[in-house]
Amino acid sequence: MAITPDYVNSLEQPTENFLCPLSANIYKIDFHSFKIRAIEEGSERVLFEVKKDPDEEPPLDDSADDSVRSIRYHFGPSFLDFTNIGTTLEFTVGEHPLHNFRMIERHYFRNVLVRSYDFSMPFVIPHTNNTWEVIY
């Protein structure tokens, strides 16, 4: 079965495993950091941040444990009190240009889809460091 954006957007609950093996990353997209913050008028508070060790090489083969491409966090019920949330994702791209780069983000609670976002970037220059910021 081909993994397409339509297929991903049709998922009604989380999958047991990743949909693509690491070897499918032919563009060598490598995620370096991810931050979640609460944004209030005139201020922001970092709620979660993770950064990759800059000396760490990205996993290249499918034998790597899935934990190398997973992050877990728990905020508790008070998270729902925030009006605006911002996320910042930093990533690099290998030697090939990326056309119509798309990230589909789906949020589930107790295996029920509560929110889905579909983001696209028309073009990403090869050999670049990039920042993708979203305000929810």
Structure description:
Helix content is 4%, strand content 45%. The chain has 136 residues and is mostly beta strands. The strands form 2 sheets. It has a 4-stranded antiparallel sheet, with no helix packed on it. A two-stranded antiparallel sheet has the order 4-5. The chain is globular and about 40 Å long. The model has no long low-confidence stretch (mean pLDDT 91).
The ordered string of helix (H) and strand (E) elements is HEEEEEE
Output the strand order for the largest sheet: 2-1-3-6
Q: Quick one: how many beta strands?
A: 6
Number of helices: 1
Structure classification = mainly beta
Distance between the termini: 32 Å
Shape: globular
Average pLDDT value?
91
User: What is the helix fraction of residues, given as a range?
Assistant: under 10%
Largest sheet: 4 strands, antiparallel
Supply Rg: 16 Å
Query: What oligomeric state do the depicted chains represent?
Result: single chain
- Hey, roughly how much beta strand do the residues contain? 35-45%
Low-pLDDT runs of 5+ residues are none
What's the topology here?
Blueprint: H1 5-10, E1 30-40, E2 43-51, E3 84-92, E4 98-109, E5 112-124, E6 129-135
Antiparallel strand pairs: 1-2, 1-3, 3-6, 4-5
What attributes characterize this protein structure?
4% helix; single chain; 6 strands; globular; two-stranded antiparallel sheet; mainly beta; 136 residues
